[in-house]
Structure formats: C-alpha cells, structure tokens
Amino acid sequence: MRRKKQKEQEARENQERMLETQEKKEWSLFKKQTIKEIIAPTGIDASDLNGLEIISATNKLARTFYVSNLPRMATFPSLFRDLYNFGDVNVSLYINPVGEERSQKELNKIINELETERLVAQDRGSINRESDLSYKKSETEQLRDEIAAGFNKLYEATIMATLFAYSQTELDNLAKMLSSEMAKNLISVRSAWGIQEEAFKSNLPFAENRLENKAHVFDKKSMCTVFPFINADIGHSTGIPLGYNKQTGNLILYDNFSSSLANYNMVIFAKSGAGKSVTMKVLTSRSAVLMGIESLALDAEGEYILVAEALGGVNVTISPNSNTVINLFDVEVEQVKDEITGRERTVLNIENKVEDVTQSILTMARGSTRSTEVNELTKQIIAETVAEEYRRLRITNDPMSLYERSDSIKSSKKEMPTIGSWYKTLQRKAEANTNPDYNYQYSYLLKVMKQYIREYNGQMAYFDGQSTFELLSNIPFINLDISQLEERFARPLAQQILLSWIWEKYVKKNSEDKKKSRKKRVLVDEAWMLLPYPEAVDFLNTMARRARKRNVSLAIVSQRFQDFYEKPEAQAVLTSSDTKLFLAQDKSEVELLKEVFKLSEGEVAYLVNCTKGEGLFKVGQDSAILQITPTKKEFEFVETNLNKIVEAERKGKLR
Predict the structure, then answer these.
(1) Distance separating alpha carbons of residues 561 and 582, to the nearest angstrom
(2) What is the mean pLDDT of each run of 10 residues along the chain (655 residues)?
(3) 77 cis-preceded (ω within 30 degrees of 0)
(4) Distance set, CA 340 to CA 336, 344, 347 (Å)
(5) Is 403 in contact with 436 (CB distance < 8 Å)?
(6) Cα–Cα distance between 11 and 475 in angstroms, integer?
(7) Measured on CA atoms in the order 563, 566, 567, 570, is the torsion positive or negative?
C-alpha cells in the first residue's frame, strides 16, 4: 500500500516537471519574439531609411521625427502646441533629471569656456562678441547658483513625433507642413534618417528611449513649456453655466464679456437640426437672468418669439401686413474719445451714415437678381441724393442739428428723411439732369425703386416712413421677426437695413455713458442669407470690428462654415470672433474646419458623429467638447422640433 502511494507521488512529480518544462519552453519562445511580432504580428517593413510601412489591412506609412533645435526663449503653453494638434501624430517626451553634482560640474565647465572665449574676444577687440559672452556667462552663473540653492534643477529631454499617412506623397507633404509649422516657433524637427525603426520603437508605449543622444537640456522653468497638459477645462471663473465638458464631466462657465477675451463676438456653425437655435436660446436666456445681458435677435425664421415672451421682452414683426416701419435714414449721436486730449465728446458722423444708407439702397437697386446695371455711376447718384436729403433738413456733423431750433427750453427732434422723400429728390434731380451719361441710371433707379415707395403702393414699402418703434433700454430681449418676408431677397435686404438701424438705435446708444454702459448682444440668425450681397457683408464686417468698443457682442449663427471662410469679404467676421462653437457638421464641411483650426482626427470624427447639442467649443486658444442640455423649464421655449413639442404637451396633459 505504501509502495503504491509512493509510485503515485512520483508520477505526480514527473507530470509537474513536464508541465514546468513546457511552460519554460513557451516563455522562452515568447521572449524570443521581436517587438514587431508582439505589437504587429503582420509585421513592419523598415527597408526605407526615411520611414516605415506598417503592413496591415490599411498599410499605413509612418515617419518619426525628433526635435533638433529649440528657441532661446519659450512661453507656456505655446511651445509645442502646433505639434500636439497637428493631426495623425504620436508624440513622446522622455525626461530625465540631471543630478546636482553633475549639473554643477557641467555648468562650471561651461562658465570657464565662456570666460575663456570672452577674454579672447576682448583681446581681439570684438566688443559685441565680448558683450554677448558676458551675458551668457552671467545667465549660466545665475542658473548654477539657483540649482545650488535648491530653487532650480536641470533635465535632459528627448522630444519625438511619429507622423502617419496612407501614401508616400501624403506623408512627404505632411512632413513639409509639420516642419513649416514648427519653424514658426523657431523649432527645428528632423527625420530620424537611417534609424527609423529605432525611433519608431522609442515612440511606442514601452518607455524605452533609443534616441538619448538627441536630448536637450532644460531647467525647471523651461521644462514646463513642453507639457501638453494645461487645463482640461475651459471657460471662466464667472459667467453662465453653458453646458458640460464631456471629457471631464465638469460644468463650463462662460462669460461672453470676460476681459480675457480679445473680443466679445461669437460664431456658431452647424448643419440643420444640430441645435444652433437651441444653443443660442439657452445662452441668451441664462445670460439675461444671471448676468443681466440684454439681447436683440434679428430673427429670420421666427425662432425667438417664445424666448422674448418668456423673458418679458418685446416681439416686433416686420412684414407687408404689419404697421411697423423702420426708417433706414435714422441717425444717432455717439460718444468718442479724443485722441489728443483723451476726453469723451459727442459727435454726429453724417458722412458714415450717408455711406450706410447708400449701401442699403444699392442692395435695393440690385434686387433679387443682383442686376449688373448697378455700377459706380448708380452709386454716385444714390450717394449725392442721400447727402442732399440730410442737407435739406440742415442735418450736419453738429449734434444739435438733429433738433428743431426753438426759443423754448425743450427742443424737439427733427423728423428724419425717408426713402419716400429720397425718391422725390431723385425725381427732381432726374428732371434737372443735363448729362446724357446719367440718363439711363436715373431711369433705372426711378423704375426699380418704386416698389419700395409707400405712395406708389410698393410691395416692399415697409421701410418707407418715420420709424414707429424705438429700441428701448433695460429690455432683456428684443426680437425683430422678419420670418414673414420673402426668403430669397426680402429677408436679406431686411437683415442689412435692420443691422444698420440696430447700429444707430441700439449699439451707438451703449456708448453714451461709459459708467452706465450695459452689456448687449446682437444675434444674427441664418447669417448665410447676407453673403450674396457685398454691401451687407461689408456692413457685417464693420459691425464685428467695432462692436467691442461699445461693449456689444455680435453673435453670428449660420449653417455652412465654408460659405464664410471661402468668401474673403466675410472672413473679418471669423477673425473678429474669439468664441467659436462647432456643432454637428456634414462630412463636406469638416475637412475645411480641420485644415483651418488644426483639429485632430478624433475631433473631426466627433463633429461628424456627435448628437444634437454637442460640439467643439473654442474660446481663444482653448477648446473642449461641450454638451448643452436645456432644463425642463427652458425646454418649453427653446425646443423647435414640432414632434417633440407635441409629445411634451401630450405627456403634460396625461399627467
């Protein structure tokens, strides 16, 4: 019995030894596998000295670069921003601290070398060279002393990047582009020629640096400039809760009028149904309630009627059937600072107003067909007639010329010229004209402009007459609804005329008293309608540039970013907007966004696939993935989907 148990014990031990031997053989085989076999079983072809081919289903090409030269001075966090945001690129930073003993030894050696070179330069009479070496020596001594006192430290850092592409031509083009972008910050990047495989392995997540001889020396202060991590959250310390950062889950506070912004303007681009209107309704309603910001919407689709009602604002409808009249000849005074004395003074700039009215009438004269009959002669006739209208009423650059002269203490404001009175002046000038070169232009204007004159029952006469509506102060939301106008021409024309009128009645008034100047926002919905009309685009650009001085934010909401970017006349709107929000995009649009704003592949993919209310939020140089979710109460006036509104009402009744 004992012998039988002994044999069983020996059999078990033999089996365990065999299993152990087998495991050792398998581990040995695994250890013999190369890095290629572990991470890419299909293999990596490193036959090219200046790149790698990753043999897989996609056959991607890769080229690894290392930073070879750095600028003398660097600022955080812009040193390697272009590298981190370049596109399909992997970046590695290998940082090794240098011991204090070695630091002191190396720095003392450099100090001695600099002193020797300085003495040689002094003997040769090279004053500039001597001065430069003295400065470098002083810097090095200061660094050595800081390290000795424990206030600083030296580091050796190797920075490398692997660029990926699907063709050799694309890889070469991207490599040139990367070198060009980095050169803007005085940074040189070089391809790891001849050692591409070693460089590629160094840029894999194995923490094995095989390019140690390409390291640069940093001190503690300059070392922070290489890190891509500044703050996962964007926004401001104060402001409205706009939405959530989907990357961190934190709330984003946004202050449209923060002093950290270069300007107060913002643009929102997204495809139809992505949530543009909902976003602006949330922004305007929360900023009105929480920050007291007044907003005025130029509403092309009737989207903001409920918002105005919910906030206790005003709805004004411009249509052929309404009694509301907006006079494009209205002009107001404004406060400007004297460049010499620095004092504020009241001015009335009639020359600018004549130009604004001329631009509006030019758009009217061109009509929906954008007629080529309108030329410089036409503009000259219009401008002369507009100027004559103001002269007829003795309105000059003197602010007091806006008022009737009276012996009484109070003086009433003069009635302004109108498009109807301008037309009569045009008729008189046409009858008195003796220059045959102007006959056709007068004839054309008299025919085409009749449709805007109330006396002739013109179908677009809603801009003829004295204004029946005054833009009042302290109103949280004013909505100018032009949705009932014809879409192809009447709405863009109304947008242009109303923008000019808003500038006079709403924006200029915000500069009358700097101490009481309120924060105001002008919202232009469906701004793409203005783009075919050069005079309208020109005024929009001017407004974008000048709004900040009057503590006003211009908000542009449109569908296609490409329409604005590819039209040089409209690019000032983009460059003058420090805040940009890109919601869901069409595939045709997203490539242009990627090129212009250096978006990563992940950001591009997100913009194509994100859901309603989600997008890329850029404030200055910072960006985040934003999710905007209206509250239950806000849903009552921000939702525009009729099906969802009906469903919500049905559920409400059921409850």
Answers:
(1) 9
(2) 64 66 49 48 56 64 88 71 79 90 90 90 86 88 88 89 87 87 86 86 86 86 72 75 85 90 91 88 93 93 91 91 90 79 83 93 86 87 95 92 69 90 95 91 93 91 89 87 91 90 85 64 91 86 87 90 82 86 87 78 82 89 86 79 53 45
(3) yes
(4) 12, 11, 16
(5) no
(6) 94
(7) positive
| 496, 248 Cβ separation under 8 angstroms | no
**Encoding tokens for residue 156?**
């050796």
DSSP string, 321-381: TS-----TT----EEEE-TTT--EEEE--HHHHHHHHHHHHHHHHHTTTT-TT--HHHHHH
Strands (E), 506-600: 520-524, 552-558, 577-583
- Rounded Cα gap, residues 219 and 73, in angstroms: 12
Which runs of consecutive H residues, i.e. helices, occur in 404-510?
419-432, 439-448, 490-502
The model's pLDDT over 67-85, given as tens digits with 9 standing for 90+, comes to 988 887 776 656 787 787 7
Burial of 366 (0-12, 13-18, 19+ CB in 10 A): buried
Contact 257, 579 (CB under 8 A): no
Beta pairing class for 294-299 and 520-524: parallel
Q: Which residues have a Cβ under 8 Å from the Cβ of 7 and sit 6 or more positions away? A: none
Structure tokens at 125: 């009479």
Phi, psi dihedrals of residue 88, rounded to the nearest 5°: -80, 80
The length of the chain, given as a count of residues: 655
Query: How many whole angstroms separate alpha carbon 649 and alpha carbon 468?
Result: 37
Any residues with CB less than 8 A from the CB of 432 and at least 6 apart, and which? none
Q: 3-state DSSP call for residue 209?
A: coil
Alpha-carbon Rg for the chain, nearest whole angstrom, is 35
Helices (H), 33-65: 35-39
pTM above 0.85, yes or no: no
Nearest to 505 by CA among 339, 353, 283: 353
Report the alpha-carbon angle 491-425-532, nearest 5: 25
- C-alpha 265/C-alpha 256 separation (Å) is 8
Render pLDDT for 173-188 as a digit per residue (tens, 0 to 9).
888 888 888 888 888 8
Helix, strand or coil for residue 205?
coil
Q: Where do we find the tokens 């696939």?
A: 609
Amino acid, single-letter form, for residue 168: Q
Q: Quick: pLDDT tens for 306-328.
A: 999 999 999 999 988 888 899 99
Strand boundaries in 144-200, DSSP class E: 154-165, 188-191
In sequence order, the β-bridge partners of residue 63 are: 163
- C-alpha span between 649 and 371 (Å, rounded): 48
Query: φ, ψ for residue 567 (rounded to 5)?
Result: -110, 100
Supply angle C-alpha 629, 631, 634, rounded to 5.
110
Helices (H), 462-600: 490-502, 534-546, 561-565, 571-575, 587-597
